[in-house]
Amino acid sequence: MSRSRTRSRQVGGSTTADAATVLDVDAIIDDPTIEIVVCCGAGGVGKTTTSAALALRAAERGRKVCVLTIDPARRLAQSLGLTALDNVPRPVAGAGADGGSLDAMMLDMKRTFDEVVVAHASPEKAAQILGNPFYVALSSSFAGTQEYMAMEKLGQLHAEAVADGADGRRWDLIVVDTPPSRSALDFLDAPERLSSLLDGRLIRLLLAPARGPARLFSAGFGMITSALNKVLGAQVLTDVQTFVAAFDTLFGGFRQRAEATFALLQDQGTAFLVIASPEPDAMREASYFVERLSQDAMPLAGLVVNRMTVPAFALDGDDAHGAARRLRGRTRPTADDLVVASLLEVHARAERVAERERRVVKGFAAAHPRVRRVELASLATDVHDLDGLAEVGERLAAASSRV
Amino acid sequence: MAGEKRLHVVTGKGGTGKSTVAAALALGLAAQGRTVLLCEVEGRQGIAQLFDVPPLPYEERQVAATDDGAVYALAIDAEEALLEYLAMFYRLGRAGKALDRFGVIDFATTIAPGVRDVLLTGKVYEAVRRRDEAGAYTYDAVVLDAPPTGRITRFLNVNEEVAGLAKVGPVRRQADSIMTMMRSQRTAVHLVTLLEEMPVQETMDAINDLNAATLGVGHVIVNQVLPSPLDDAAAERVASGALTPAAVAKSLARVEDELGPSAAEGLLLEGHAHVARQRLQSHQRAVLTEAGAPVVELPHLEDGVDLGGLYDLGGRLVEGGVR
Q: Which parts of the sequence belong to the ArsA/GET3 Anion-transporting ATPase-like domain (chain A) (predicted)?
């Protein structure tokens, strides 16, 4: 009895072969109402490659695509023509068919920040901000800035995409590769953090140091400034105050745009893809993403599991080991026998790995039964040209339809 | 124990297993009789998962004991570190709370540039230098499960930036002391990688950045190395096509009579992919040696990472000179 139960579970609940839970990537990139695809996931799971492959495939299927990458591998960047770091999308030569096109850009966070400052502040103020030591540190080297700037850039690209009206649109699909944040969805927190910062009393306190603020802020205020002075030193506090004062007018615009981008991401025109590999850590991150996206009411399209081990033929790992042992144990094994025995061991290992990976994916599926997913076999080599990207896109689509 | 490192910084690209390596190193050092503090700074509770203990609070807890040594673990939290720092250095008991009410703590730890990294490195600095009443170091060594390779130089160097911002005062003094420790001969930054193109490239970039910032590179740790069942000659026979499907089928038929011709083709297909990957790995291994840093290889643990596996990896690290 237990045996038949096991078998029926294998048929019904096995991995990709279940129509209701299969993620169809072509349906997403072919859907004209989808204007933004966001790929998120832990580092090292093939996120950038997947983003680029999807963007290329969409362009080949007639969409006008812009792909925003954060930190591509050098050779992948070269294949997309991303050799010049000028922070604007450039056409990718040789990509696109049926009226479709592909533009690509790599995020330059310092430059994006500078451009925002220049675009939204008066020339004198802009100069003041760009020269402030705090601004220089904030815009070029500190963690967190990348997430804010990715949001800012996405907002800009989307505004630019729709600017020319429905027919003459420069892009009708933007594919975003998210930064490899330490806490994975930091970029979603950007608007809220900005808001809490702006509405916080600290900023008002920093902005109004000379205006007899003790009356405004109760007795605690004197203690605060003296504490800050003591910890930071007067010169640092002055620099910070100058910076915040100069930045004050910009902050409002920042928040507004970040909130607009946040709303854009929640819109039905956006599809989030969570990318993972079949390792426990990466899948844990994927679970976290899925939960976080649903908390924030972000439209999750599904999960892409890259790098699955898929043996090329069916032979149980133990049986393969046994066969290898028997070949080696023959009285006079031929040279071929010995090589084949080694190949059988390679196969046995693949079977074991595949089994473990299936368990990991199953764990995710059990926790998130409604999340659509697609699984991709790992590639023997790295992808670094358009043909390779096209092949990845092809395989993604094929895996979706293999039901 | 002259010459042994007091601070081991373990970094690596996402997915290379740096947390596993950091934990293994802590155990390896403890097995040598040392008392080790293992720190994590990214709020992921990776240590708790590896050692199978409940999530760690902001408090040093013993997670393993050896005959003469022990591993304590600490998940450093930036907010707690700031409050502790304020209380310790400025005796800001009440003012600390007031700062919290004003949103200063939140501002400092999440929004203000770099403060987070300053606090995290500050806490590590404190743990490395801490002494007991008798004047001996509380910890023989501190192992830091650090941010990933892409951020590591910035992270370790953050106090240099602070020193650029704060020209005088207590913050400046603290920043200078931390940089002195980071650049010390007794601090080593180890880079964990896999034999794949992207992690190797990132490792090479990070080594350049670290050298440029005069931060000391320790070992390159190649993780999850799988020995191939095929020797070079066998790999060549597979890759060149000298071993034909018919020949494979003939060998297979000698020991498995139920396998069809598709098995022979499948086996060769897998063999080709395996040899291609193996050759890519040899190439990456050669690239890594160009960096000039000593390399230690760790085997792939087939059945996942358990405590026994961690001790095994730790022993190999120490034997390989990471100590």
A: 35-309
Residue A152's Cβ-side half-sphere holds a number of Cα atoms within 13 Å equal to 26
Q: How far is B267 from chain A (nearest CA, A)?
A: 6
CATH number of the domain residue A284 falls in:
3.40.50.300
Q: Is A230 on the interface with B (CB under 8 A)?
A: yes
Q: Is residue A332 helix, strand or coil?
A: coil
Kindly list the domain boundaries of chain B, sorted by start residue: 7-226+300-319, 227-290
Q: Of chain B residues 183-212, which have a CB less than 8 A from chain A?
A: 196-199, 201
Kindly state whether residues A346 and A377 are assigned to the same domain: no
Shortest distance between the Cα of B141 and any Cα of chain A, in A, equals 25
Of A89, A95, A90, which is closest to residue A54 (Cα–Cα)? A95
Cβ separation of A280 and B304 shorter than 8 Å? yes
Provide the mean pLDDT of chain A: 81
Instruction: Please list every residue in chain A whose beta carbon sits closer than 8 Å to the beta carbon of residue B13.
Output: 43-44
Residues in chain A within 8 Å Cβ distance of B270: 311-312, 343, 346-347, 350
Residues A109 and A57 in one domain: yes
Q: Report the candidate in B13, B3, B65 with the shortest Cα–Cα distance to residue B201.
A: B13
Question: Which residues in B23-40 are b (16+ Cβ under 10 Å) and which e?
Answer: bbbbbbbbbbebbbbbbb
Chain A positions touching B43 (Cβ under 8 A) are 182-183
Q: Give the amino acid at B251.
A: S
Which residue of A305, A343, A355, A384 to mutate against B (max B Cβ within 10 Å)? A343
Q: Say what the ipTM of the complex is.
A: 0.82
Q: Count the domains in chain A.
A: 2
**Phi, then psi, of B301 in degrees rounded to 5:** -90, 110
Indicate if A122 and A169 belong to the same structural domain: yes
Residue range B7-226+300-319 in CATH 1.20.1740.10: no
The residue written with tokens 């925002």 in the block is A116
- Beta-carbon-side half-sphere exposure of residue A167 (alpha carbons within 13 Å): 0
Does the structure show a pLDDT above 80 at A253? no
**A102: containing domain:** 25-193+265-312+361-399
Nearest residue of chain B to residue A236 (CA atoms):
B166
Kindly report the nearest CA distance between residue A230 and chain B, in angstroms. Answer: 8
Asked if A291 and A370 touch (Cβ cutoff 8 Å), the reply is no
The DSSP element (H or E) to which A91 belongs, if any, is strand A90-91
- What is this structure's pTM? 0.82
Least confident of A239-243, A382-386, B211-215: A239-243
Range 99-118 of B in CB contact (< 8 A) with A: 99, 101-104, 106-107, 110-111, 113-114, 116-117
